[in-house]
Amino acid sequence: MNLEEIKQHYKEFDGWVHSLKGLSDAEWNKPLGDGKWSVAAVVSHLLFWDQYSLKERFPYFKEGAELPSYPDFQSVNERAREYGENTATKEEILDGLLAVREEFHKMLEEMDNDKLAVSFKISEHHMTVGAYLIDFIQHDLHHQKQVDAALGRTLMK
């Protein structure tokens, strides 16, 4: 996946996030197929991990950097679920996600192929900026597919 394809994903994904603003309360709170997580919780989960990347990862992507391991996934995910299902409104979550993604767009506009190739470590895992972004794009698409399936939608592409 090249830089233009990465940028395109984020533009298209913004369109999908905007489309969720039209969901009814019943749709927003609808459980996914696993019955455990709601649409609200999954979108909040995306918001929490994006905020983490923006604050705790992107500023430290330097050639040869050694970054700490991820925080406890279960703990972050449970906080995101609580926020999505019991604390924040649909508008707060969606607007928050779009605001974080706007920061992603700004970062990507300043990026080139050399910056995508910057190599670093997270714990013992070697990766590049490009690989990190692609991992999170796959994460987006995984959850978009889950939400769309729960809502009876076809994946927008």
Structure explained in plain terms:
There is one protein chain. The protein has helices at 3-20, 25-28, 39-57, 73-87, 90-109, 113-116, 129-151, and strands spanning 66-67, 119-122, 125-128. The model has no long low-confidence stretch (mean pLDDT 93). A 3-stranded mixed sheet has the order 1-2-3. The radius of gyration is 16 Å and the shape is globular. It is mainly alpha-helical and 157 residues long. The protein is built from 7 helices and 3 strands.
Q: How large is the radius of gyration? A: 16 Å
Structural class: mainly alpha
Q: Proportion of β residues?
A: 5-15%
Biggest β-sheet: strands ordered side by side in the sheet? 1-2-3
Helix content: 55-70%
Overall outline: globular
Calculate the terminal CA-CA distance, rounded to whole Å. Answer: 16 Å
Number of strands: 3
The DSSP helix count reads 7
Main sheet overview: 3 strands, mixed
Mean pLDDT: 93
Oligomer: single chain
Residue stretches low in confidence (pLDDT < 50, at least 5 long) are none
N to C succession of SSEs = HHHEHHHEEH
Sum this structure up briefly.
The chain is mostly helical and 157 residues long. Helix content is 66%, strand content 6%. A three-stranded mixed β-sheet has the order 1-2-3.
Jot down its keywords.
single chain; 157 residues; mainly alpha; three-stranded mixed beta sheet; 7 helices; 3 strands; 6% strand; globular
